[in-house]
Amino acid sequence: MMTSLERRNALKGNELAWYERMLEIREFERRTNELFAAGLIRGTTHLCVGQEALDIGLATTLNPDDVLAATYRSHGVALAFGLSSHSVMAEIMGKATGCAGGVGGSMHMCDSTVGLLPTSAIIGGGMPIAVGAALAFQVQKKKNVGVALFGDAATNIGAFHESLNLAAIWKLPVIFVIDNNVYGEYTRIDLSTPIEDLHLRAASYAMPSIKVDGMDVYAVQASMQEAVDRARRGDGPTLVEAKTYRFSGHSRADQALYRPAGELEHWQKRDPILLTEQALIKKGILDQAKIEAMKTKIVNLVDSAITQAQADPEPSAKDMFSNVFKEMRK
């Protein structure tokens, strides 16, 4: 079985692998939703269906020794960054073989070998952490970058403004990525925020900003590369706004009945998997036979991951106290 780092490196410069990993994320989320509905998973979950291009775009422009602080909608990010379907599914199922030992669950993915910091259930919780990581890189004179990925509604909280302000003053190598998927939980952006182009808020901190089509993996990569290059040069932070759309509701209990008629169908025409598929067919990299073969392969892969995770042991009660603190020797 490939390690997380090997799976991450397999994406490097391989457009066909990007498409395959996007298929894996989509199938993984579909099956996760089924398992929750069947009562086979405890707790809640937040699916990223429709946002696969953003996940892959981040994974293919950052290095494994950079760090990402993401949100609770993180299954796709984890898979894009190289975690296996088994590792992520086992964590969601609360099994000891999960990426956090089964004690974190759906909202807490992590793997230090690929730079994925523990994802946070706290709205905007990753922003100060990414800023702190960037400060550490700056002090240590490293060329690494910290990235915070967060939703549109998080731009209305104090941590957003404090993080951007500090990053701008100290010219930290950090990138703030807004996953603007139109809704903050169940509330449409126009009902909670006076502007819909959230990247404009960067001007308040004399910070460069980029607006990008988050449904287009190539556009995401280009924008992220620009921001990453700026950070590595020592030119400070960037605010990137990716215009995306989640095809599912906020969480497993949300049927998304608040959406205006036709809105979902409008965005589905720009399904990131469909756009990537069309681009690869045009380039002669992909054809219908390969598409069907890859889809079959992914269904089998996720099936196998689920079967394995269901048979895995659960953590013991004492495991909840593991990794709470670390004793430092002088």
From TrEMBL:
The keyword Oxidoreductase applies. Its cofactor is thiamine diphosphate. One of its GO terms (molecular function) is pyruvate dehydrogenase (acetyl-transferring) activity. CDD domains: TPP_E1_PDC_ADC_BCADC. GO terms for biological process: pyruvate decarboxylation to acetyl-CoA. Keywords: Oxidoreductase, Thiamine pyrophosphate. Residues 21-317 form the Dehydrogenase E1 component domain. This is Unannotated protein. It comes from freshwater metagenome.
